[in-house]
Amino acid sequence: MSVKLLDLTRQYKDLKSELLPVVESIMETQMFVNGPVVQEFEQNFAKYCGTKFAVGCSSGTDALIMSLIALDIGPGDEVITVPFTFFATVEAIIRRGATPVFVDICEKTFNIDVSKIEDAITDKTKAIIPVHLFGQCADMDTILDIANRHDLSIIEDAAQAVGAAWNGRRAGSMGTLGCFSFFPAKNLGAFGDGGMVTTNDEALYNKMLRTRQHGIDMRNPYHYDHIGGNFRLDALQAGILNVKLKYIDEWGNRRANNASFYNEHFNRFSNIVTPHNLAECRHVYNQYVVRVKDRDSVRKRLTEKDIGCAVYYPYPIHTQPCVSYLGYTQGDFPITEKACKEVLALPIFPELTNDEITRVINTIIQ
What we know:
Elements: H1 8-29, H2 36-49, E1 53-57, H3 60-70, E2 78-81, H4 88-95, E3 99-102, H5 117-120, E4 125-128, H6 140-150, E5 153-157, E6 165-166, E7 169-170, E8 177-181, E9 195-199, H7 202-211, H8 235-245, H9 248-266, E10 272-273, E11 281-282, E12 288-292, H10 295-304, H11 334-342, E13 343-346, H12 354-365
């Protein structure tokens, strides 16, 4: 029996009867850009996250770029983040002409080590981008305290954390801005690319509405007060995501149940470190990531048995050739470097069966 890392066909079959009429209605109206479907999803997503506003956009990467534009972050500015994340977090900072400043991660959670943030702050620091990695929020209480004392903005990178929460507050609702990705593999996935920025700041919201359309002021078309881009969310994606949003908590609970099933078996083995779920968090397990010292041999064994797995992430960002100009070297962030050698993501999607999970477990512990 093969086991996929992610099988989106099962979700589609469950929702097909709801999705097809939505897609057909958009095709009938031919309103593919902006419009009422996008607005409805934005309103529903903001309500779900517990924010006043949400702005749909073309990807999680563009959500980060829009956020940096909204905060006027650019050349000469520094933004604190982590070297253990998907490259888009860092890429967005660099594309704005700002400088990423790295802080190592916490060994248990893979999220930013908040005890190291203040040492990285300089007079050039404008923002902190904590990454809610794998579906668990960073320590937002401490980050908010630091940001408030140093007058810094917070951009939550919640690309993997729709529905995650810290002390009852949902990801994307705690910082100045929250950034989400709807890439198909995410726990709330579109049928292509898509993203969202959430905020409680009306001025930032209005600026991002302009930013996603090249900076056009729609009250005065073809007048531009700042540079934006083509960052719009397609109506087709918004319609699909609006259907799926109704099920996101149920899917999160299923993912958590699958994680508990894994943990129950793996916790008997000292060579397998299961995900550490903080008491303050609702972990949504966008990925279920274990640590094993013989990671590459375990990965090979799973692949040979036709069981899906993946490494997120095999290379520390601070050692990547394209950011060598930042001056970081191997050894600068030892926890990140250790994680890159040990992490392994296993199947966790909501429709996974206990028999499939058992096959994964037995292959690893054999």
